[in-house]
Amino acid sequence: MRIYLDSRDLILLVEKKSSDETLRFEEKLRQGQSELVFSMHNIMECCAPLVHAGESSIVMKTLNRLEQMPHVYIAEEQIELLELREATSAFLERREYTPVTPPLVPRFDYVVSPFHEPPTKEYIQYGLAHMIYELWHEDKSLFAGHPRHANRLRGILKSNRGRDDYKRHGPNFQNTVLRNLLLYNIQFPEERVQELSEWISEFPSRSPAGRLGYEVFHKLLRNLTDDGEDSDIPDFAHISCTPYVDAMTLDSRMRGYVAQVDKSIGSNFSQKLYRNVKDIEVLL
What we know:
The chain starts with a strand and ends with a helix. By secondary structure, the chain is an alpha/beta fold. It has helices at residues 7-16, 19-31, 40-45, 48-53, 56-68, 79-92, 108-112, 128-138, 146-161, 169-183, 193-202, 208-222, 232-241, 252-265, 277-283; strands at residues 2-4, 35-38, 71-74, 104-105, 247-249, 273-274. The chain has one domain (2-283). Helices cover 58% and strands 6% of the residues. Strands 4-3-2-1-5-6 form a six-stranded mixed β-sheet. α5 packs antiparallel against α8 (128-138) and α12 (208-222) runs antiparallel to α13 (232-241).
């Protein structure tokens, strides 16, 4: 079983629980042949003490303990690219979409460099805490980006809500597909993008992470009482991993949006979502 804990629960697991409780959780993982899934965002969020107080010792201790547990790394920034490549191929070849293989990578430096082999590839021993420590000294802005990006997201929400056509779900999804084709340099006949977007929309299993992210964003967009939160950027990254894990913890607000998506499009993504580590332990 692949278990994705958000940063709150990773920190709770190794900092707030007693060492015996943490060890029992680890033993349950091993007994059930389960593993934690680490991504760019749930790991980088664990490093917040570096930003707020320069507390490197706390962060390094947390990362070292997490690395001792059964785990795997996922390069979440690859997911939408892999899905869209498969979707375009399946559509043009007139076959059904084949679920893509999760982009699991051997170390965190491959997550930081998701589209190219990292320059540190040849390092035989390169632990997680060591990588974070070097990244921190090289570019501290890497660990302070969410509030800035969240403000940009709030601006996008405000701008979209000011448009008369922001509820035009189909055409807006078509625009998203076209934008991503250009972003990932995927060659596809532009005059057939509408057909492609309609084909993807027909079943939630086609490009599931991309579809889920789009639908959650539009649930947020239509909720005029929700102006967004600083945690939205990492939460959207977590959501992109949902189709590729067996269980995930996510805050109640985002779980609510995913449940709304399930109701709208007939998916079952919310069945993988849990409140906290305690709920996850019941599965092990």
